Amino acid sequence: MIFVTGGAGFIGSNFILDWLANDAAEPVLNIDKLTYAGNPYNLASVADDPRYAFVQADICDEIAMATLLSRYRPRAIVHFAAESHVDRSIHSPDEFIRTNVNGTFNLLNKALRYWQTLPQDEQQDFRFLHVSTDEVYGSLLPDDPPFSETTTYAPNSPYSASKAASDHLVRAFHHTYGLPTLTTNCSNNYGPYHFPEKLIPLVIANALAGNPLPIYGDGLQIRDWLFVADHCAALRTVLADGKTGETYNVGGWNEQTNLHVVHTLCDTLDALSPRAGGSYRDLITFVKDRPGHDRRYAIDARKLERELGWKPAETFDSGIRKTVQWYLDHGDWVAQVRSGAYMNWIQKQYGDNPPGALV
Ligand code: NAD
Ligand code: DAU
């Protein structure tokens, strides 16, 4: 069995669906607190799969983490659980420190104690895969080379600072205690089940509702976009073949300004679901910039390609087209998430036992 923390969120649920699509996959226990960002409805299609189980728990909960580890004896932990939205971290950083720093520390601590009880062969097979972000490296100038695994950490937001702290704890647990850890630092993901507070799903959802498309500042900030399925494939690769104690950068070789991203989304929507009375571009509205806004991120993913043979399969155009089509086909998902109704749906349908819940 593997544990997945934060498996009801955007990347975690894509990872679990992807993992279970392989018939030979080890079972998964999804451990998620179900914050506003966690939606077990994402996993309704695997709720009856005997290889999937869900438990609602907080990674900060010492007893819960220790109990789950000793009861289910995982071969690996894939750690996604986090507060993930930069804007929220600016307005209320407390929860970011609690979950991303203290929660990761608690999980590491309990994982270490569990790992120390394992027989030697199981110790050797065990992996703690920490899923982190390129934002720990700070912001690039226009002519800087992309972030590599040796770039100095320089986090600028409370979110990136909390993730940087968690990366350092993971490193320390490997270096000091020998816990077999792996860390990945990935660029901006996009794709199905992306919570519509983040740029791409927000723009699609607002456009379809006829609402303004907010662009922070001049819109010329650059992100390196990666289709979420490519990130999931990278994580499977690192989990299977990564060298313990190492970090791997994951990115799409796909730097785009925010303005270009929004234009591409508008043009794709114009083609797939035309709007009466004009282009979706007419809804673009420039708004006040994000405080401390990082100007440019870009990932050098050559280590992962050279050492483990991973590279992204999707281009930006094909990935964006798939993503827009997914949102057009899943208007019910967007409506539920935006209204908060998915929380009521879970309660009504399952009481305290969301899909796949252990009873
Ligand atoms: P998300 O916000 O969509 O999901 C986070 C999940 O974690 C939710 O299901 C939430 O309920 C759960 N969670 C939060 N606090 C918890 C706690 N205390 N205990 C248990 N569960 C808790 O996030 P995401 O975009 O899917 O990101 C997942 C991970 O990947 C994060 O660690 C993030 O830093 C990292 N990451 C994200 C991106 C990206 O572009 N989204 C890129 C690189 C790295
Ligand atoms: O780089 C990886 C990171 O990417 C992850 O670690 C984070 O969890 C994830 O949220 C994401 O962070 P960003 O801040 O880059 O993503 P976001 O979608 O919030 O914003 C992308 C860019 O778009 C950023 O430059 C801010 C801008 N933006 C965002 C929103 C929500 C806008 O211009 N308007 C908006 O309404």
TrEMBL record:
The keyword Translocase does not apply. It comes from the Bacteria. Its EC number is 4.2.1.46. The keyword Lyase applies. One of its GO terms (molecular function) is dTDP-glucose 4,6-dehydratase activity. PROSITE patterns: ADH_SHORT (PS00061). It catalyses: dTDP-alpha-D-glucose = dTDP-4-dehydro-6-deoxy-alpha-D-glucose + H2O. Keywords: Lyase, NAD. This is dTDP-glucose 4,6-dehydratase. The gene is rfbB.
